[in-house]
Amino acid sequence: MLKKLMNSFILLLVVMASVSQLSAHEFWLEPINYKIEVGKALRAHEKVGQDFKGNKYAYLASSYESLDLTINDTSRAVKSRLGDLPAVSEVVNEEGLVILSAVTTPSAVTYKTWKKFSDFIKSKGLDWVLAEHKKRKLPESNFTESYRRYAKSVVKVGHGKGSDKALGLIFEWVLETNPYSSSKNSDDKVIKAQLLWKGKPHANAHVSVFNKLNGKIIKSELITNSEGRVEIPRAKGGQFLINAVRMMVAPDKMKAEKNAVWESRWASMTYVVNIKY
Fold first, then answer.
1. 112 part of a folded domain
2. Does residue 224 lie in a domain region?
3. Structure confidence by residue, pLDDT tens digits, 6-53
4. How many domains does the chain have?
């Protein structure tokens, strides 16, 4: 009886957490340790919030289309269970650079006021959306946006050698620099990354970069070049979150299922530099 009550309580907490996520957009995977030894568990939180500040959420299978771990060109599904916190706890028995990736199922948010929508759009450098919204003669309150999120994180296991790669996500970041490898050339001062949309470079995209170090968070803004690339300064090290948003007119399916007038896709990546764990 006690076990049944506990399971029901966990399910209630997970459902409540899932519902509360609808009010926030930014989603990222945040490992507890970005460096682990072979044979140890890679433990990571699912986080939702803003500006690299967010709440931790327990694992809920229906929130994910996929949650995978990739190392040495081999991918496998993460075997999390309902209510797991952290959402990821997966033993890694190989050495190299591990890519943790997640694709969420569609969610939706309803904007009660124009200001809330306008503030969000402006913060992501998507001002064209506001003009298009009015051109389409859409309501300025109580309208819905559907969204999906594509998150990645890289973790050093053992020597940490290897490289990030495109995993075939519709919207994804690919680090072209291994943040855990050191070199003595001029590129050592930056982390190079490329943003892909359906496997092709996503040019002129607004990028938010968050650098967390010693309890402080510094935000900067970048724009991808014609090849979808940005160079992110290593600065003094710390945790990094890079995030990009693509906004589109909601397809008919989303209009029918969620009464949405806009659809957004979110791509995030987390990693650390110059930190000993």
1. yes
2. no
3. 444 344 344 444 444 444 579 999 999 999 999 999 999 999 999 999
4. 1
- pTM value is 0.89
Residue 78 counted as domain residue: yes
Backbone angles phi, psi at 255, to 5 degrees: -65, -40
The pLDDT tens digits of the residues spanning 208-261 come to: 999 999 999 999 999 999 999 999 999 999 999 999 999 999 999 888 888 999
pLDDT 10s digits, 121-132: 999 999 999 999
Structural domain of 135? 2-163+246-273
Give domain status of residue 66, yes or no: yes
